[in-house]
Every structure is written in C-alpha cells, then in structure tokens.
Request: fold
Amino acid sequence: MIFFQQLLNGLQLGSIYALVALGYTMVYGIILLLNFAHGDIIMVGAYVSWVVMSRLQLGPITAVFASVLMCTLLGVVIEKVAYAPLRSAPRLSLLITAIGVSYFLENGAQLIFGADGKNMNAIFSIPNLTIGSVTLSSTALVTLAVTIVAMIGLLMLVHKTKMGKAMRAVSEDMGAAQLMGISVNATISFTFAIGSLLAGIGSVLYSNIYQMATPTMGSMLGLKAFVAAVLGGIGSIPGAMIGGFAVGFIETFVSAAKIGQQSLSVWRDAVVFAILIIVLVVKPTGIMGHKVREKV
Amino acid sequence: MSLLNVQDIHVYYGSIYAIKGISFSVEEGEIVSLIGANGAGKSTTLKTISGLMRPRTGKIEFAGADITAMKAHKIVAAGLAQCPEGRRVFSRMTVQENLEMGAYTRENAEMEKSMEDVYYRFPRLKERYKQEAGTLSGGEQQMLAMGRAMMSRPKLLMLDEPSMGLAPLLVEEIFEIIGELNRSGTTVLLVEQNAQMALSISNRGYVLETGRIVISGTGDELLRDDKVRRAYLGG
Reply:
C-alpha cells in the first residue's frame, strides 16, 4: 500500500518537473538556449501567490490567475529585454545572460521579500481520498490531473493550431520559416509565453504542496527539471513529459528506499544529477531526442 | 515598371565581400535566370532579396515598393516567395503541415484553394500528405518545397537550385513544372548551376562571377554566347 502512495508521490513530483521541463525544452528547441532563469519563474509565481493570499487577503482563485499571469508576462519580458538583443550573438553570451537573469531574480526577490521563507496556506484544500486501507493524497491527485490537462492542451496547441505549427517550423529551421512569412520574433515570444505559462501552473501546484516561498526555491527545482528535459531529449516535448515523470519517480523512490536501517533519502539529489551525467555520456540526445544534423 | 528591380546592391557575408554591386530587373510574366559557378553570389543575391541578408548599400524594389529594409516575413506577405537551396522542408512536419506553413500569411479559405492547386500539380504529394517530409525522396522533397513556396500565391517565385541532386528525368520534370507555373501567371527568378536547362526556359539571363554580373542577355543569346558556352555549358 505504501508502494501506491509512493507511486502517487512520484507522479506528483514528476508533474511539477515535467511542467517546468517543458519550458526548458521548448525554449531550447527554438533558440538553442538553456534558459537557466526558467526555474526562478516558479519562485516569482510562488511569491505572487503569497502576496495575493497572505498580504492582500484575496482568495485562492485570484492567486492562481495572478500567479500564472505574472509568470507568463515575466517570461515574455525576460526574452524581450535580455535575450532578444542577443539574437545574433554567440550562444555562450546568451547562456551567461540566462544565468545573470537567474541571479537577478533570486537576489531581487531576496531584496524585496527578505531571505527567510514566507509561509502560505494551501491553495486548494480537498480531503484525502481513502479507498479501503489506502489513503491517496488529494493534493497529488489534483496536481496530476491539472498537469495532464495542461499537457493535452500543449500537444493540441503545438499540433493543431497555426501558431503551434509555426513554433515547430521555427524550431526546425528558422531561415526557412522566415521564408514562409512567419515572424520569428513573434513566434519566439509566443514560445516563451507558453513555456512560462506552464511554469506558472507548475508554480501554483508546487506552492500548494510545499506552502512556502523562498528566494532560491526555483534554482534546485529548475536544475532538476533541466535534468528531466535532458533525460527526455532536450528539444522534445513528449521527451520533457516522460523525463519529468521519470525524474520524479526516481527521486521519490530513492527518498523512500532503505538499506538496512539506513535511509537513502540524502542521496536523492546526487542520484538525479548522476542521471544527467549518465545521459550525457551514454545518450546525449536523451530518450526522445533527435539527432542534430549540422546545417551547412 | 519592373516587378523586381535590384539596384547596385553590395552584400557582405561577415567580412567577406560577396556581392560587389549588382543590378538587374525582372519584368512581370518573365522567367529570368541567374547562372554562375559555385560561390559566384547567386544564393546570396536571393537571400538578400528575401530579406534574410541585408545589403550594405543599394536598393531593392518589388512591385513599386522599396523592400530593402523590410522584414523577411513581410516580404513574403508582399508577394515574393523563395524556395530555398537544399529544399529545406520541415522534415519533422507532415507534407500537409509543410504546405500550411507555406500559406502562413494567408486566410484559411484561400489556403484550401492553394492546397488543391498544389495537390493537382503534384499528385504524389497528395498521396503522401500525412507522411513526415523527412521521409520523402529528394525529388518529392523538391516538389514539396516548390509547392510550399507556391502556397503563398506569390507574384514572384524565386527558386534556388531546384535541380540540385536530382536524377536527369526528375530535373526535366521540375523544369516542366516551372514552365507551367510561369504560363499560369507566376513570374520566376531562377538560380541554377544547370545553365543549359535554366537558359532554355528563360526569357532572359544574367551570368554572375565573383559577385558581379559579367554577361546578360536573352536566354537564346546566352546559350549561343561563346564565353557562356565555354564556361557553363561544357563546350
């Protein structure tokens, strides 16, 4: 029975990683940037929830909308202000800028809100589900359900809508996409908006689970989501989904595992980063990744 | 007034001086060829017209408007499409999706019409509409790339090396299609290394050498020109 509960915990954690990994992978797919500021968007979303609920005393629904909206806007603004001017610069400049943006957000949050964490109430509180002797966390079920809906929405967007198809076209061949009359800048902005919107949803779900906001909460979360994106195959949307759940499961099971009386939970971060190293050594394209053909 | 008017453009590839002041024009209804060896600047010229590269100086006018500084995607909307060198189809998208991208600047209803037209011209694409473009043969990919460029119903269609890497029979088929397209009202600017084929269907041609136009004339004149014969027609 504990197994089922751990399975659900893994799905819950994996949902968050998958939502964040999607933003990483979409941005990488389109401008080949590892957007290390992406995890910090989650942190900003968490503070927005805290401000709305604890400071302004507004309801959880307002918090959800404010949080998701702010994350989306923030992602677009970061792209316009920090990355767009570097469109034809070497990729390393872009990567360094992303790290700079990450520090800027973390330290900015610390300046405004202080270094200590801010506690908040759960955003949704629904009683746990008990089936026979198994108690299933309703938070985990909600997290999983919201994530699945978001993923289906994303897949529909990318495969059925004109803008989604344009995103795929730009990510495959930016020059050819321009020759189709696709505005590359608008498509890149749209990609950041969607990636950040998913991070916003992830942020709400994460805040609902851990009920706390700290300035650096996004960095470890972001790194693990990055591992998930690489494991799934960076640039691949289904890959980010699979990678997210895989990392969530692995982390949960390592946390729960014991050798004799010794809990392995202190090893969970090490194991996740070991996956990164193994993937990069053994199969750098990840589970679903495409072989990158060098264009002449 | 010419449909396309290129006036003394100078283009740099980084620090390489690639186009050293070329001027030419394309009249409505014509097929015009740019021929020349590898590295003569033919593709660079097309990229500059399409707005993917910028001339350092010079002016490009299309349908009476100055498009020298216009963004690439707006140039497509203005009626100038390019089918790029090496086809560059979106290999992980289906045939149908590739064609949809070609009509990106147009309304859905118009897109359907264009798609019917493209499928009528290229029945093989219709058979494979659900297939990923990367799985098509070279000839089919060339047809897809041309069909995709036609989807925007351009006034001027620029084709960059449409015969590259294709078997002789397919090359003939591709050139026949170019002729048909032209007869149905599309003006064509053609860049080719296969000078014989290109000049034989062209009203006029220009020969490029290291970034300059060295000879120009009607298709027939160039086919008979001694220098052109020696340098590009193998005899």
Summary: DSSP finds ten helices and ten strands in chain B. The interface with chain A takes residues 50-52, 71-74, 76-77, 81-82, 84, 86, 88-93, 97, 100-102, 104-105, 148-149, 152 of chain B (CB under 8 Å). Chain B has a mean pLDDT of 94.
